[in-house]
Structure formats: structure tokens, C-alpha cells
Specification:
The chain has 8 helices and 6 strands. By secondary structure, the protein is mainly alpha-helical. The chain is rod-shaped, with a radius of gyration of 43 Å.
Length: about 350
């Protein structure tokens, strides 16, 4: 403003500067040879140079860059784009044209206010007067470019001068979509990432709790198996003397009768088969539980790592974690509604 000796009337609703975004979709830039993370190819830079020269002709102060605050091509977001800020400076001012009588004097109504002149269609007549000093005035800036049709006219001109060279289509006519600023975009990305971290932390914490519960359950079942084994040994104890007697009889040390010996063999064989069957069941259960316990124990180091990560997040970013939790809960509990976007006063290509 100082360089242009411009004035500015500051009010609560006045616009100090405006912004324009020029971009397209990923496929368009890929067709021009763009690869994310690599230096942009010449064709991409030629596209943005044509776009910048178009902006200078349309909104530059007398076709120059004197009112351009900043013009930067960004390659650090999802899609390459030219972000430009400028002062809406004018050196002419729209003035009302008042009706005059035959004597050349301004006509007035009953209240004494001057009457504005109108054309043959009944529309109020204005004229542009040169200002002594340029001024920053968004309303006059766009009024001189077509008023309510100015944004559409600018999009049409961009299509004719730039877009048509690349086979691009005209943007949606009458669109009220609002561009997301870089700060808003970064904030949204951070909130989304925190929500994912919170979700992963919750899942890992649940997994850790589940693994602990499974390990405790496996240990309880192993203890129960050991108790059953001890009980089986206790049940065999009363038969020890018979087993010993049977062994001694086979060795010929005890003078047992054949009848008693047959009875002893039948009894011992029956009891042996019963105990052998129970032992097979116990061994199979113990093997299955031991395998499950091994699986759980293999996951303990990983789960401990997740637990340490969650603790670190709680220690160093508790506010962000709580904020992400609230956001996630709100998304889960709030039914989806149609999105209504308020139209911005700034223009987006």
C-alpha cells in the first residue's frame, strides 16, 4: 500500500487482501509428467506460468504485479497448486449519477434527498471517476469486473486462455465450494492422524488386555491339569500293594493260587485301561493348552511395545489424545448429515 500510495478504509467487514488457488486433479498433473517427491517437469511449470500471467492480466494493478503480495507453487500437499494473494486495488470509484431538471439542477424527492438517474430499463446509472489516490476496496474491485457476474466471467476467461490448451473442462458454474487453506488442511490431517493413533492405541490396549487374560486362563487350566494329575496319582496309590504283589507273583516269589492270580490280573487290567484312557485325555488337553500358551507368550513382546507406545502418548500428548478420543466418539455417535458450506467472499479458480 505504501509503495502504491494507496488508502484503505478499515471496518469490521472490510477485506484487506484476497486469495486465488489454481490447480487441477492428480491425473492432470500426472499426464504432464509430474511424480510426487521429484522435481516438477517443465510442462508443469509452463502451466503455472501461463496461469500466473493470466492472473496478472485480470487482477494485476494495470496488468503488473504491484498489488501481488505472494505467489507460490506448492508441491508439499496432495495435489500441486498455485496459491496467490493480492490487494484488490482500484484507482477509479463508482459514483451515482443524479437526475437533473431542465435548469441543470439535481432533482430531489419530497424529503429533499437527491434522485438517482435511471436508464431506459429502469436501472440506476453510475459513472466511474478517477481517484486522487488508489484505494483497497474489494467491492469496487469486483464491481468493475462485472459485479455479480465477475467470478463467472473470470472462470470463463481462464478456460478460454489456459484450460482449453490442456483439454480441461470448464469448472462447475455457480459453485459455492470453499477452498481449504494450508493451515486448515494441515489441521485436518493432524486430527485425522491423531484419531487413527487413538484408534490403534485402543485396539492394541484391548489386544494386550486380551492376551493377558488368555495367559491367565491358560495358567489356570495348566494348574487344574496338574491337580488332576496329582489326583490320578493318589487314586493309583491304594493299588500299589496289588501291583507290587502282581510283580512279585510274576517273579515267582509269592505262592499265590491260580484263582487269586487270575482275579488279580483281571482287576488290574481293568483298572489299568481306565487310568490309561484318563491319562490320554489329560495329555491331549495339556498339549493343546501348552500350544495356546506358547502363542500368547510369543505376542507378549509386541504387546508390551504397544503398551509402551500408548504410555508415551499419554505422557507427552494427553490433550491431543483426549481431543482425538472426543472427536472419534462424536463421529461414531453423530448421524451423518448433508454438508452445508457457506460461500466465501474470496474467489477460487
Amino acid at each position: 500500500m505504501n509503495e502504491l500510495d494507496a488508502t484503505f478504509k478499515e471496518t469490521k467487514k472490510s477485506t484487506a487482501f484476497e486469495g486465488i488457488i489454481i490447480t487441477s486433479d492428480k491425473e492432470f498433473f500426472q499426464r504432464l509428467g509430474y511424480i510426487a517427491g521429484e522435481d516438477p517437469p517443465p510442462e508443469v511449470m509452463r502451466f503455472f506460468n501461463r496461469a500466473y500471467n493470466f492472473i496478472l492480466r485480470e487482477i494485476g494493478y494495470h496488468g503488473t504485479d504491484q498489488n501481488i503480495i505472494s505467489a507460490v507453487i506448492h508441491f508439499d500437499e496432495t495435489t500441486p497448486h498455485l496459491q496467490l494473494y493480492y490487494l484488490p486495488i482500484v484507482d477509479k470509484e463508482k459514483k451515482k449519477v443524479y437526475a437533473k431538471g431542465a435548469d441543470g439542477k439535481v432533482l430531489r424527492n419530497e424529503k429533499g434527498s437527491p434522485i438517482q438517474a435511471k436508464d431506459e430499463h429502469g436501472k440506476a446509472i453510475y459513472e466511474l471517476n478517477e481517484l486522487e489516490q488508489p484505494k483497497v476496496c474489494s467491492s469496487d474491485f469486483w464491481e468493475q469486473r462485472g459485479g455479480q457476474l465477475s467470478f463467472g466471467n473470470l472462470q470463463d476467461a481462464f478456460y478460454d486462455k489456459v484450460s482449453i490448451r490442456y483439454g480441461l473442462e470448464r469448472g462447475e458454474v455457480g459453485s459455492n465450494k470453499k477452498h481449504t487453506t494450508k493451515y486448515e488442511w494441515q489441521k485436518q490431517q493432524q486430527e485425522a492422524e491423531l484419531a487413527k493413533i487413538e484408534e490403534r492405541a485402543t485396539i492394541r490396549e484391548d489386544q494386550a488386555n486380551f492376551a493377558t487374560a488368555m495367559r491367565d486362563k491358560a495358567m489356570d487350566e495348566l494348574r487344574e491339569i496338574n491337580e488332576q494329575k496329582e489326583m490320578a496319582s493318589e487314586e493309583l496309590e491304594p493299588l500299589r500293594e496289588y501291583l507290587d504283589a502282581f510283580k512279585e507273583a510274576l517273579e515267582g516269589d509269592l505262592p499265590l493260587s491260580s484263582t487269586k492270580l487270575r482275579k488279580m490280573i483281571v482287576g488290574l487290567t481293568t483298572e489299568y485301561k481306565r487310568l490309561e484312557s484318563e491319562k490320554k485325555i489329560t495329555d491331549r488337553d495339556r498339549k493343546n493348552l501348552f500350544e495356546e500358551l506358547q502363542k500368547v507368550e510369543k505376542r507378549i513382546p509386541e504387546l508390551e511395545k504397544y503398551k509402551a507406545f500408548v504410555s508415551l502418548l499419554v505422557d507427552y500428548a494427553p490433550d491431543k489424545l483426549e481431543e482425538a478420543k472426543r472427536a472419534a466418539n462424536e463421529r461414531r455417535n453423530t448421524p451423518k448429515q448433508p454438508i452445508k458450506i457457506k460461500t466465501s467472499g474470496n474467489y477460487k479458480l
